[in-house]
Write a structure and sequence with these properties.
This protein is mostly helical. Helices cover 76% and strands 0% of the residues. The protein has helices spanning 10-37, 43-61, 66-77. The longest helix has 28 residues, at 10-37. The radius of gyration is 28 Å and the shape is rod-shaped. It starts with 9 loop residues before the first helix and ends with a helix.
Length: 78
């Protein structure tokens, strides 16, 4: 009766699933590290991106003209 058959396959089935789980966790860890390492932490670029977003909003609301937008955009890009 206890020959290791059935759904789990006995100790080998549980051991195999455990190893598979560990490999999956390690794989996800390395994938996340590789994904995050490709992103550069450049605060100046983030600040410029945010500033351009604000300029676009102001232009859309009509708070500044297109000429002012272009002038300020050039100043930000410097």
């Amino acid at each position: 009766m206890m020959n290791g058959g059935g759904m789990g396959g006995g100790f080998f089935g549980a051991g195999f699933l455990f190893i598979l789980l560990i490999v999956a966790i390690v794989g996800v860890f390395f994938w996340m590290m590789r994904t995050n390492s490709g992103k550069e932490n450049n605060p100046t670029q983030d600040k410029n991106h945010h500033s351009l977003g604000l300029l676009k909003e102001r232009l859309a609301k009509g708070e500044i003209t297109e000429e002012e937008y272009e002038r300020l955009k050039r100043k930000i890009d410097e």
